[in-house]
Amino acid sequence: MSVPSQTPYNTHQGNGVTTVFAFQFYILAAGGLQVSVDGEVTSGYTVSGVGNAAGGQVTFLTPPASGTTVLLLRAMSLYRDTNYQDNGDLLAQTINLDFDRIWMALQGQSLYNSLALCRPWFNYNYYDVQNYSIKNLATPTNGTDAANKNYVDLLVAREAAAREEAIGVDITRALRLAPGLQFNQLPAPASLRGRLLYFDDQTGQPNPIVPANIVNPDVLDLQSFDGEKYIGQCSNYATLSGITPACEGQRITLREYASGTGYGGGKFVARNFTGTEDGGITCVVNTDWHWERIGEPSTFDVTMFGAIPDGETDCIEAIKLMEAWSRTQTDNRAKTGVQFPSGNFAVSSWDSGGTYKRLFSPCWRGQSRIWLQ
User: Fold this and answer.
1) 266 and 344 in one domain?
2) Is residue 221 part of a domain?
3) Is 16 in the same domain as 109?
4) Could you name the domain of life of the organism this protein comes from (predicted)?
5) N or C: the chain end with fewer CB closer than 10 Å?
6) Of 73, 88, 114, which closes a domain?
7) How far apart are the first and last CA of the chain?
8) Domain match, 64 and 101 both
9) What is the pLDDT of residue 110?
10) Domain check: are 240 and 324 in the same one?
11) Are residues 44 and 105 in the same domain?
């Protein structure tokens, strides 16, 4: 029998019910048909149509599951089992079957060749995979080897890690804003030639200015509308007594008399001679230096000596300090006394003995001045 030009395989989809599947190619024996389900060669079936050029059927004992792929493939082993004897019978059927087997093997080989990675033609210098994937590719070892996805992913991951590390280093030297903030767009590069960026003292937006307009950046900070915040402050009176001035006339700002109270602050000036500590106006550092509170003595009050107008903290010690200081002010003694700003002051008892003490004076502008005796 002649061997027609046939495709030596058929595929079917299982549905969990069908047990009979047809094949449309010539086989010489049932063993020449390979049956697989989802790529796994299986058993549990019978084959009919052996020797029929039009093909036959495979009948499963159990229907393949729904969604599985059933492949019926003619698989010819490459061997010769016909042995012609000297002076033996040369039968047509024997010769035909022998040649049929050869042609079936050639058809199978042609099928496998069609699945191989090939060049489009002899004069092409590349292989065309026809948009198919290539799997199980080994890791490249030479520079001209093909690379698999794992190798590429590894290189990309290494590069990304190195880039992130470099960015992490570089970004610390970059001008950047917090998330959600942005600078206004700068003018065209031609407009920026010969200019430097100056950050506006109110908006903070960058503005290009010519170098001749640049002044000391500290001056820019200090002359801004809130520039005083850049001037350092001493945290409390006790700390002030430990700060040695650098020169006569140096000034310093005291934030508050005692930390966390918000009262008794002010400005002081350095004096390079011996002073007498009074607990609020003259803050002695050492035998050579002291800080002197700046202001009109008539405006001083007990908060500058440590009093706190919270209605709970006893202010008697601050009163004593201010009273003692007031007695040293010969030119302003009649105007000063002990003064309280508006607020609620807690005052305990004070035994002044038999000495007349003018502690308080009349009030004006929210300050209390009263004489006690």
Assistant:
1) no
2) yes
3) yes
4) Bacteria
5) C
6) 114
7) 144
8) yes
9) 80
10) no
11) yes
pLDDT of residue 365: 46
Residues 45 and 105 in one domain: yes
Residues 60 and 100 in one domain: yes
Side chain identity, residue 250: Q
Domain boundary among 198, 213, 229: 229
Containing domain of residue 217, as a range? Answer: 189-229
Most confident of 9-23, 102-116, 213-227: 9-23
Number of independent structural domains in the chain? 5
Long-range contacts of 35-38 (CB under 8 A, 24+ apart): 35/70, 35/71, 35/72, 35/73, 36/70, 36/71, 36/73, 37/64, 37/68, 37/69, 37/70, 37/71, 38/68, 38/69
Residues 68 and 157 both lie in one domain: no
Residue 280 lies in a domain: yes
Residue 141 domain flag: yes
Reported pTM: 0.41
What is the bridge-based pairing of β-strands 33-37 and 20-23?
A: unpaired
Q: What residues contact residue 19 under an 8 Å CB cut-off, 6+ apart?
A: 59, 60, 61, 62, 63
The predicted structure's pLDDT at residue 216: 62
Summary mean pLDDT of the chain: 85
Task: Look at residue 32 and tell me if it is in a domain.
Answer: yes
| Section 28-55 average pLDDT | 92
pLDDT digits (tens, 9 = 90+) for 217-232: 666 566 666 766 777 7
